[in-house]
């Protein structure tokens, strides 16, 4: 699919400097631009590449004024980064704008769906499933009984949605994600063996939630595991039973959250963070990568380490930790001199 510089400028409400009929059919980094590609310049440290790039069209800030002549056609906008992101969203919409039911696939006679459904081949839709309008379900997706999916949501290939799950509007669930599997519930018996505790709750994803590839969210033992509006989860995250994550919180890859923990709104949690169960983490909390959280956390705290310390305290302590061999030698020398 090809677009002209003028068409792109219309989408972005930008101004063309150069050939308005310059055509592009692919995207590229500015340093790797080739003829027929579209790129952008937002970070000043890449400015030198604008004079050498082979890209046919480049999106730049309106404040950019070239020092020498440029062959590439420019589209000037208020914010090049935001405009390029907007264009990527538009590109994704066009690329994924599939409609229709591919065969072979299975849809229960008791399931219902809205207009413009796309259902990829080898997908399964269980009993009493309710699917909204403009939903895209890619091949090899499993959707269990009594699942509800809101309008404009996308479920990519190979995702598994267990029974009773509720998915809101505008959600994105990436490949390999598993939503609603049993929580890790076992009780020891008198023989020292473990008996399974039935997990009869569900998972609720509110509107505009993004779930990364191979991320797993367990159903509640009772009640619901709840992911609030606007939450963004990276790949390979484990969310245990009865966890609640507040709206607009973002969590990076390989983080694990144990059962019944409550996380507040607008939190930022780095990769490989471990969080124990049955604690409460407040709003606007920032947790650095590879931290271990074993206590309740108040609003606005910034934490690092395992077990995690307040961020400033951790940095001060780390300075001393790095100098520990020198400190030990100094102490040993002082002790030696004291006895001489």
TrEMBL record:
<dbReference type="Pfam" id="PF04613">
    <property type="entry name" value="LpxD"/>
</dbReference>
<dbReference type="InterPro" id="IPR001451">
    <property type="entry name" value="Hexapep"/>
</dbReference>
<dbReference type="InterPro" id="IPR020573">
    <property type="entry name" value="UDP_GlcNAc_AcTrfase_non-rep"/>
</dbReference>
<comment type="pathway">
    <text>Bacterial outer membrane biogenesis; LPS lipid A biosynthesis.</text>
</comment>
<protein>
    <recommendedName>
        <fullName>UDP-3-O-acylglucosamine N-acyltransferase</fullName>
        <ecNumber>2.3.1.191</ecNumber>
    </recommendedName>
</protein>
<feature type="domain" description="UDP-3-O-[3-hydroxymyristoyl] glucosamine N-acyltransferase non-repeat region">
    <location>
        <begin position="22"/>
        <end position="89"/>
    </location>
</feature>
<keyword id="KW-0012">Acyltransferase</keyword>
<keyword id="KW-0808">Transferase</keyword>
<keyword id="KW-0677">Repeat</keyword>
<keyword id="KW-0443">Lipid metabolism</keyword>
<comment type="function">
    <text>Catalyzes the N-acylation of UDP-3-O-acylglucosamine using 3-hydroxyacyl-ACP as the acyl donor. Is involved in the biosynthesis of lipid A, a phosphorylated glycolipid that anchors the lipopolysaccharide to the outer membrane of the cell.</text>
</comment>
<dbReference type="InterPro" id="IPR011004">
    <property type="entry name" value="Trimer_LpxA-like_sf"/>
</dbReference>
<comment type="subunit">
    <text>Homotrimer.</text>
</comment>
<dbReference type="Pfam" id="PF00132">
    <property type="entry name" value="Hexapep"/>
</dbReference>
<dbReference type="GO" id="GO:0016410">
    <property type="term" value="F:N-acyltransferase activity"/>
</dbReference>
<dbReference type="GO" id="GO:0009245">
    <property type="term" value="P:lipid A biosynthetic process"/>
</dbReference>
<dbReference type="GO" id="GO:0016020">
    <property type="term" value="C:membrane"/>
</dbReference>
<dbReference type="GO" id="GO:0103118">
    <property type="term" value="F:UDP-3-O-[(3R)-3-hydroxyacyl]-glucosamine N-acyltransferase activity"/>
</dbReference>
<dbReference type="InterPro" id="IPR007691">
    <property type="entry name" value="LpxD"/>
</dbReference>
<keyword id="KW-0444">Lipid biosynthesis</keyword>
<feature type="active site" description="Proton acceptor">
    <location>
        <position position="241"/>
    </location>
</feature>
<comment type="similarity">
    <text>Belongs to the transferase hexapeptide repeat family. LpxD subfamily.</text>
</comment>
<keyword id="KW-0441">Lipid A biosynthesis</keyword>
């Amino acid at each position: 699919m090809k677009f002209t510089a003028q068409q792109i400028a219309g989408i972005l409400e930008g101004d063309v400097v150069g050939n308005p009929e310059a055509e592009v059919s692919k995207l590229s980094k500015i340093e790797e631009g080739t003829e027929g590609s579209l790129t952008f310049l937002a970070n000043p440290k890449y400015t030198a590449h604008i004079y050498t790039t082979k890209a046919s069209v480049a999106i730049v800030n309106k404040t950019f004024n070239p020092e020498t002549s440029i062959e590439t056609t420019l589209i000037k906008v208020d914010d090049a980064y935001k405009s390029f992101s907007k264009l990527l969203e538009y590109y994704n919409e066009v690329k994924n704008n599939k409609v229709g039911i591919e065969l072979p696939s299975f849809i229960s006679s008791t399931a219902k769906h809205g207009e413009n459904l796309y259902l990829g081949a080898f997908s399964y839709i269980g009993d009493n499933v309710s699917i909204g309008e403009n939903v895209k379900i890619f091949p090899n997706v499993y959707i269990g009984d009594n699942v509800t999916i809101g309008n404009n949501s996308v479920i990519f290939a190979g995702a598994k949605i267990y029974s009773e799950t509720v998915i809101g509007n505008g959600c994105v669930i990436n490949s390999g994600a598993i939503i609603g599997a049993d929580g890790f519930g076992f009780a020891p018996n008198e023989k020292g063996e473990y008996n399974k505790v039935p997990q009869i709750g569900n998972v609720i994803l509110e509107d505009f939630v993004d779930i990364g590839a191979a991320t797993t969210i367990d159903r509640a033992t009772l009640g619901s595991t709840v992911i609030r509006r606007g939450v963004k989860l990276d790949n390979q995250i484990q969310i245990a039973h009865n966890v609640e994550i507040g709206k607009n919180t973002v969590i990076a890859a390989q983080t694990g959250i144990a059962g019944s923990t409550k996380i507040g709104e607008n939190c930022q949690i780095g990769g490989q963070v471990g969080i124990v169960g049955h604690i409460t983490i407040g709003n606007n909390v920032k947790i650095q990568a590879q931290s271990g959280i074993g206590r309740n956390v108040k609003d606005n705290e910034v934490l690092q380490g395992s077990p995690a310390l307040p961020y400033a305290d951790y940095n001060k302590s780390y300075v001393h930790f790095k100098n520990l061999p020198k400190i030990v030698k100094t102490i040993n020398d002082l002790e030696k001199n004291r006895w001489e």
